[in-house]
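Thread: quick sanity check before group meeting

JM: Hey all, I'm pulling together slides for Thursday and realized we never actually wrote out the predicted structure for the chain we discussed last week. Dropping the sequence here so it's in one place. If anyone has concerns about the input, flag it before I start.
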Amino acid sequence: MKTMTVYSQDWFREFAVPRLHMQVPAEAADAALPALRSDEDLNPDMSVGAIDEARAAAVLVGLLERKGELHVLLTQRSDELPTHAGQIAFPGGKIDAEDAGPVECALRETHEETGISPEFVEPAGFLDVYQTGTGFRIVPVVGLLRSGFDLVPEPGEVTDIFDVPLAHFMEPANHLRHSRVWQGRKRQYYAMPYGERYVWGATAGMLRNLHDRITRS
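JM (edit): ok, ran it. Output follows.
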């Protein structure tokens, strides 16, 4: 009989954290290096644009424990936003000149978008840098969330904040491949629906990367 893994915080610290990047990957700052993950992953004929034109960004892959099992924190963007309206995303955004680096950016954006202040976040490591077809080079910062915070969605930016069991994203059967026409061409992308929540695109791509790093030998 197959033993079901309980994705607790203790399990994550012991088995997952050692498989993360402990330092910001070099390609986050060096435009000459290719991003290891991108929207090209399922579309080898697709170009995500000149690397030196990519805009630096960071997101927080926040993990909180509920009844002994980790959940992934996600937001739903406002339908009124000019780009990526209504999509499900990690809290995060463009790295500003005032930010000391990706971690500071991810923590600042998380505070602004969700109300979770940095004191509740324990950075644990980094996933591979992810480059999007819209020109962003994203550093996913993995962080463990301490309980006690209040969620306050940013008006005009975030319509909902919710969480999904990590176990859902760790199951390969939930890593679907969907497609749609983009700029006149059919493109494939990862989709990991959870109930009425349609997690797809770059967010699903980064979750796929989380799965791959955790399960690699």
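AS: nice. The chain has four helices and eleven strands. The first helix runs from residue 9 to 16.
JM: adding both to the slides.
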